[in-house]
């Protein structure tokens, strides 16, 4: 299933048990709000967090922001009830953790059978086993609600026993392959979180790297990260101008039927026209926010 194209530059997680943070999210410039029931919530607060997430979705007030509930896994004491509650609440998407294979996607899809048709399934890409099954997990989108992936680099680091270096070298293979598999099946894909809350320069650098890898946006953990992330994941004025020039050039009668043309001193092929059209659509969707 393919998601409706919309800006997903910044996706802010918050513990659904933190009513103050959930309320604050209604005023923040993030494109997506993720109400977390999983790792941000202590076991003794799981049930209250579930109830608060449902109430927040029902109360609304998130405006243009896409609303997502991240549930606990089906292999935990809370997963089944979380999925039932999330299906009834009907957010834009339900994000499921630690997916290992296509059968896991199918199980989560079945657990969401009562959800509104518009509610999508998103999956965390954060286990070693899933990295060797990216193709079959992405292909499950053809028969289920699956429409998006979110990288879980904290869990991946834990499993791999990798260091989270500034350049994220230990994760390059996982990040690149996940983006390629997601794109092969038309899935959205968001980058993992940056844990250093006060390090704006480091955040900006990993946001730039996320754009380089091809991610649609990045998951975040604090409101102060939103502005940097939105800026870096928005197409620049220069990129939009170039894209518009490519679209205009291919529309000229003298270029009809051509596969490659010269635009402002650079080669543009029909594949660049497709990229240009997508970039302008993203820029217009951002401008509309
Ligand atoms: C990381 C935090 C625990 C830091 O909390 P704290 O130091 O208390 O924050 P501040 O005092 O700076 O907060 C200032 C105000 O901002 C609000 N706030 C803080 N965080 C958020 C948020 N995420 N969303 C909305 N609002 C937030 C505070 O309420 C303050 O408001 P006010 O008093 O009105 O000024 C905390 O930021 C936090 O809990 N972050 C989210 C943690 C989380 O959700 N983690 C789970 C997702 S990460 C993950 O699991 C990734 C993945 O699975 C993987 O494996 O990689
Ligand atoms: Mg995780």
Kindly report how far apart the N and C termini lie.
25 Å
What's the rounded overall pLDDT mean? 97
Please write the CATH class name of the largest domain: Alpha Beta
Specify the biggest β-sheet: 8 strands, parallel, barrel
- Helix amount, in percent? 40-55%
Element string (H = helix, E = strand): EHEHEHEHEHHEHHEHEHHEEH
Q: CATH superfamily membership of the largest domain, which one?
A: Phosphoenolpyruvate-binding domains
CATH architecture of the largest domain: Alpha-Beta Barrel
Number of helices: 12
Number of strands: 10
Strand content: 15-25%
Widest beta sheet: strand line-up? 1-2-3-4-5-6-7-8
Instruction: Provide the CATH topology of the largest domain.
Output: TIM Barrel
Q: In the residues, how many domains can be counted?
A: 2
- What structural category arises from helix and sheet content? alpha/beta
Q: Kindly provide the radius of gyration, computed on alpha-carbon positions and rounded to a whole number of angstroms.
A: 20 Å
Could you tell me which ligands this complex binds, including any ions or cofactors?
A: ligand LIB3CWND, magnesium ion
């Amino acid at each position: 299933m393919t998601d409706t194209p919309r800006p997903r530059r910044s996706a802010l997680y918050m513990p659904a048990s933190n009513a103050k943070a959930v309320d604050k999210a209604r005023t923040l410039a993030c494109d997506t709000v993720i109400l977390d029931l999983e790792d941000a919530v202590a076991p003794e607060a799981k049930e209250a967090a579930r109830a608060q997430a449902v109430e927040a979705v029902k109360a609304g007030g998130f405006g243009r922001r896409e609303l997502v509930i991240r549930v606990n896994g089906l292999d935990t004491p809370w997963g089944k009830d979380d999925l039932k509650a999330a299906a009834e609440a009907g957010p834009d998407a339900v994000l499921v953790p630690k997916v290992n294979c296509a059968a896991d996607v199918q199980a989560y899809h079945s657990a969401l059978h009562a959800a509104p048709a518009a509610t999508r399934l998103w999956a965390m890409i954060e286990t070693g086993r899933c990295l060797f099954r990216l193709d079959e997990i992405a292909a499950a989108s053809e028969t289920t609600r699956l429409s998006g992936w979110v990288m879980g680099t904290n869990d991946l680091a834990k499993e791999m026993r990798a260091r989270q270096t500034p350049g994220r070298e230990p994760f390059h293979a996982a990040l690149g392959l996940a983006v390629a598999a997601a794109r092969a099946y038309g899935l959205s894909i968001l980058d993992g979180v940056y844990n250093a809350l006060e390090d704006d320069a480091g955040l900006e650098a990993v946001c730039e790297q996320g754009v380089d890898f091809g991610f649609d946006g990045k998951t975040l953990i604090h409101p102060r990260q939103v502005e940097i992330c939105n800026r870096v994941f928005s197409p620049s004025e220069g990129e939009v101008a170039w894209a518009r020039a490519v679209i205009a050039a291919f529309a000229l009668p003298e270029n009809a039927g051509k596969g490659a043309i010269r635009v402002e001193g650079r080669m543009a092929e029909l594949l660049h026209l497709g990229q240009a059209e997508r970039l302008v659509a993203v820029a217009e969707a951002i401008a509309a926010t």
